[in-house]
Design goal:
With 216 residues, this protein is an alpha+beta fold. The protein has one domain (19-214): 3-Layer(aba) Sandwich (Chemotaxis protein chec), CATH 3.40.1550. It is built from 7 helices and 8 strands; from the N terminus they run H-E-E-H-E-E-H-H-H-E-E-H-E-E-H. Strands 1, 2, 3, 4, 5, 6, 7 and 8 form an 8-stranded antiparallel β-sheet that branches. Helix 1 runs antiparallel to helix 5 (117-143). The chain is globular and about 55 Å long. The relative contact order is 0.26.
Length: 216
């Protein structure tokens, strides 16, 4: 899975970190957007959805792989949905589904018949699009900036994590990473939302956050 960022690779040490106020503002914006996504997921599944505290940090490609590996057994099968976003900020979102939980989606959504592979794939695309769309829209609306996102695409299907994410195949070295886990209590459903913002977007977002705080 090659994530589509430019090949220019600044050192992580050369990227200026956000101030405490900027970091706090971004954390609050992301918390709200992720919470809205969890509520939307709970409504379509008809179950309570628990989410972890969203984490935001500068990360290398290897960090990202370790992050996802910490959520999913490296030997377990996963499926993943990818969407890009652009305009004032640019990057992409990946929703990683633990396969055991992905197989429960039809039951959770009230289907009483066995779905074929194509129908199960459509459910993953629907849920992935819901989560990404809600989060990106929430961030854009709160920060009063313009963001649009692509249609979802399936980038991994019933495969192992180490086959989906390979550090040497990533076309970027550093990104602003936002991540959260969604789980449904009482069943095996779990998914992990990762949002990567491109290296050149980090400074753009800094200015947007400053304008947002000035308007509060």
């Amino acid at each position: 899975m090659a994530l589509s960022y430019p090949a220019d690779k600044p050192s992580l040490m050369s990227i200026q970190p956000y101030t405490e106020d900027q970091s706090d503002a971004l954390q609050e914006v992301v918390n709200i957007a992720m919470g809205q996504a969890g509520d939307s997921l709970a409504r379509i599944l008809g179950n309570f959805v628990a989410l972890s505290v969203p984490r935001i940090r500068l990360a290398t490609g290897k960090d990202v792989i370790k992050t996802v590996a910490g959520m999913v057994d490296n030997n377990a099968e996963i499926s993943a949905i990818r969407q890009t976003f652009s305009n004032s900020l640019r990057g992409e979102a990946v929703v990683v589904f633990a396969q055991t939980g992905a197989d429960d989606l039809a039951d959770l959504m009230g289907y009483d018949t066995v779905l074929d592979s194509s129908a199960k794939q459509e459910l993953l695309l629907e849920v992935g699009n819901l989560l990404v769309g809600t989060v990106i829209t929430g961030i854009a609306e709160t920060l009063e900036t313009d963001l649009s996102f692509s249609a979802p695409s399936l980038v991994a299907k019933c495969t192992s994590l180490d086959q989906m994410l390979v550090a040497e195949q990533l076309s970027w070295s550093h990104a602003l990473l936002m991540e959260v886990n969604f789980t449904v209590e009482g069943c095996g459903f779990k998914c992990h939302l990762l949002i990567f913002m491109a290296e050149e977007t980090i400074d753009t977002l800094r200015g947007i956050l400053d304008e947002f705080m000035d308007g509060i």
